Amino acid sequence: MQEYSKKERTTDIACLILFPLGFIILAILAIMGFSEGFFAETYISSTQIVSAILVMILPVLRLTKKFRSPYWFMFLVTSVPYLHAVSLFLGFYHSFANWDFISHTYSSIIVGLIVFISLLIIQHYTVRIDLGSTATILFFTFIIAWGFGNIWEITEWIIDNAFGNALMSYSVMDTLGDLVISDLTGAILTDVLAGIILSRYSITQIVEEMNLDRFMDRIGKKWDKKCGNESDD
Amino acid sequence: MKENLVVPATFSTLLLTLAIFETTQNKYLKEWVCIILCIGLTINILSSFITTIHYTPDDWIDFYLVTPSFIFVSFVSILLIIGYFNIRLDHVMLAVFTLFMSLSTVSAYAGLFLFTRVLTKTLTDEESKLANYYLDASFAVVLLAAIISIFIIDIIIRKKKIKLITSKYIVTEEK
Description:
Chain A has helices at residues 6-31, 41-54, 57-63, 71-90, 92-95, 99-125, 134-163, 172-200, 203-208, 213-227. By secondary structure, chain A is mainly α. In chain A, helix 1 (6-31) runs antiparallel to helix 2 (41-54) and helix 7 packs antiparallel against helix 8 (172-200).
């Protein structure tokens, strides 16, 4: 496991401050009435605040040494709420015809990559769980990435019901378009990307870069112990 | 034959064929597992027929009835996949894969069935909004039913003291 250097710590503190800062500025501007979006200021500013909290999770995990995610991973994950929140603030969903498709597809790719990496970590650090060949890992990545689209649609539905408005889902075609076109496209693109990655690097090479040894060794052993049969003991 | 029968019935029939094949071959899955799968899939196909008979163009209740059956179909699919591709999972991973397989299947179902239906009909904005809520609600039903099924799977496995799914259901080799 690599040492946690001072430089890394400084970078993590900077990320912890800078990641939510953009959202906080946008939230203040929305409250002041500067947003270009077609939605109520309360909705736009609430989205910025929730996003600000979400983007702090990965830097906090790094600082507390619970999960030292690679920086490229942290930036990719952070880009998703930024894309949504900035688009909402600037009214891109209404200004550009295919913006919803782009936003959904991009989010689906990032979620898919998180799923893909999680499956590789499970495959690498557990002995008794075996996800099989590259093809089956890609298959599971695909179904989970696509399935997450449904969870997002349910979230939209819950928010709409809670606020009593069609803030997030507009029509059945909107939901179907998100699920069947955007999310499916995202899941397919993720699989293509994951397939290219796996053809160039081994699972060990990908996972060991993440410095998860200490954390995952413990979890992996626990998992293996839990998976064991009485006959194996 | 109504269009909403095609997807679940074809999918279930295909899986039923595989399950029957497994019962006769007894190669990957245990016999008692295959018998349960065959009974479940037969019920699933029959329920598809029943919902189709009672289907009316303005009645979205069939969606509530058909979608939970995807959980069972997904569970069967995952069991067959882990059997054929020599995958080893614990019950948590099995439950997670079943959950997401259910959600992906319902997306595919929604895409094939509803897109055809929506595109061939002219819906008013109000009807479209209502349909959207039914659609999202049906996803919520699947999610809720899948979570409940995870608990049921967990309880059954714990009760039967099966900790590693694949070693009891399927013959595998060490990684």
